[in-house]
């Protein structure tokens, strides 16, 4: 995938005059990309970016797609970046390619070329592109690019207040214990555990149900576990009491997960102030599936 194809002649002339081109990010660029992103996101340090990019580099990814995304290049120096995190995932029984359109930053002197990065990033109609961290002030811009809302908000729930399912057990996922799980689910649990997430399996006596959570602090004080993966949100609701007690023993009384409406069976609150997510393409992500996204790779 090369950006040069499809750019109009006016853009080409402008690029030529400025000495700017758009190209794929290579492994050798990662240090420069991390430094560039630190200027765009000063609340993050270089370790944060390099750790996530190296995790992404080390895992299997679909071929024939950019490894990390695109950059604006002037004389060999990146002056703009859009990170693209491609994955092969299961949608029902079909393996699809989807792309988490992640952090985007362009140096002020080169903002006139920003649209070139966006054109390069989302033009393959066979891919599902999604944005899980759009700032509220960018929502109109994201929608103008053809993205549609698939998640409107999020719920913070106190799962310990739910009644546990009798005889259901919650265990940490261990390598080699894949009975009742698909190969894809086993890979999700194993790799996310490697990212520092909490990979769990709930056994109800008949089936095994996979979950991935990520611990973080709200306002740097309140510990919360964020749901990154479940087969269905209904699984989280069903086993809320069991999971809540397991997480409470690890210091988390609240669980945060994506939602489009309140869930009456759970004690908590629903908000649309944060958590909106957008997608465009043939297979919008389902709620409860943030596997291999920036949330896992960078924040884990």
Report how far apart the termini are: 29 Å
User: What is the number of helical segments per DSSP (H or I, 4+ residues)?
Assistant: 9
Run of helices and strands: HEHHEEEHEHEEEHEEEHHEEEH
Biggest sheet layout: 7 strands, mixed
* % residues in beta strands: 25-35%
Shape: globular
Measured as a percent range, the helix fraction is: 25-40%
Unreliable residue runs: 1-17
User: Quaternary status of these chains?
Assistant: single chain
Mean pLDDT figure: 89
Strand order of the largest sheet: 1-2-3-4-5-14-6
Return the structural class.
alpha+beta
Count the beta strands: 14
| Rg, Å, rounded | 20 Å
Structure description:
- With 300 residues, the protein is α+β, with helices and mostly antiparallel strands.
- Helix content is 26%, strand content 32%.
- The chain is built from nine helices and 14 strands.
- The strands form two sheets. The chain has a seven-stranded mixed beta sheet with strand order 1-2-3-4-5-14-6.
- Strand 10 (208-218) and strand 11 (222-230) form a beta hairpin.
- Helix 2 (30-40) crosses helix 3.
- The longest helix is centred in the first third of the chain and has 13 residues, at 46-58.
Write the layout of secondary structure elements.
Layout: H1 9-18, E1 20-24, H2 30-40, H3 46-58, E2 69-74, E3 77-91, E4 94-106, H4 114-121, E5 128-131, H5 139-144, E6 148-151, E7 153-157, E8 169-172, H6 183-194, E9 198-203, E10 208-218, E11 222-230, H7 233-238, H8 240-248, E12 254-259, E13 268-271, E14 277-280, H9 294-297
Parallel strand pairs: 4-5, 11-12
Antiparallel strand pairs: 1-2, 2-3, 3-4, 5-14, 6-14, 7-12, 7-13, 8-9, 9-10, 10-11
Helix pairs in contact: 2-3
């Amino acid at each position: 995938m090369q950006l040069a194809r499809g750019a109009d002649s006016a853009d080409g002339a402008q690029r030529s005059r400025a000495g700017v081109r758009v190209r794929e990010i290579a492994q050798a660029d990662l240090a420069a990309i991390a430094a560039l992103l630190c200027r765009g996101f000063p609340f993050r340090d270089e370790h944060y970016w390099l750790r996530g990019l190296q995790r992404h580099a080390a895992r299997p990814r679909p071929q024939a797609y950019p490894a990390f995304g695109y950059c604006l290049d002037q004389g060999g120096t990146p002056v703009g970046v859009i990170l693209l995190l491609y994955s092969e995932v299961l949608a029902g029984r079909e393996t699809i390619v989807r792309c988490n359109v992640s952090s985007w930053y362009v140096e002020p002197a080169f903002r006139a070329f920003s649209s070139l990065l966006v054109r390069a990033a989302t033009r393959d109609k066979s891919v599902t592109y999604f944005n899980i961290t759009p700032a509220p002030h960018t929502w109109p811009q994201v929608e103008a690019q053809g993205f549609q809302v698939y998640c409107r908000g999020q719920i913070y729930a106190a799962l310990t207040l739910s009644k546990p399912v009798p005889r259901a057990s919650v265990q940490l996922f261990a390598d080699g214990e894949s009975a009742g799980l698909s190969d894809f689910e086993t890979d999700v649990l194993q790799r996310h555990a490697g990212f520092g997430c909490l990979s769990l399996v709930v056994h109800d006596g008949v089936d095994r149900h996979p979950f991935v959570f990520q611990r973080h602090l709200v306002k740097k004080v309140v510990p919360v576990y964020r749901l990154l993966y479940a087969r269905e949100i209904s699984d989280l609701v069903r086993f809320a009491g069991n999971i809540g007690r397991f997480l409470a023993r690890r210091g988390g009384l609240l669980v945060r997960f994506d939602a489009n409406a309140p869930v009456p069976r759970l004690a908590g609150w629903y908000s649309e102030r944060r958590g909106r997510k957008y997608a465009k393409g043939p297979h919008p992500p389902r709620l409860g599936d943030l596997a291999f996204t920036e949330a896992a790779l960078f924040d884990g």
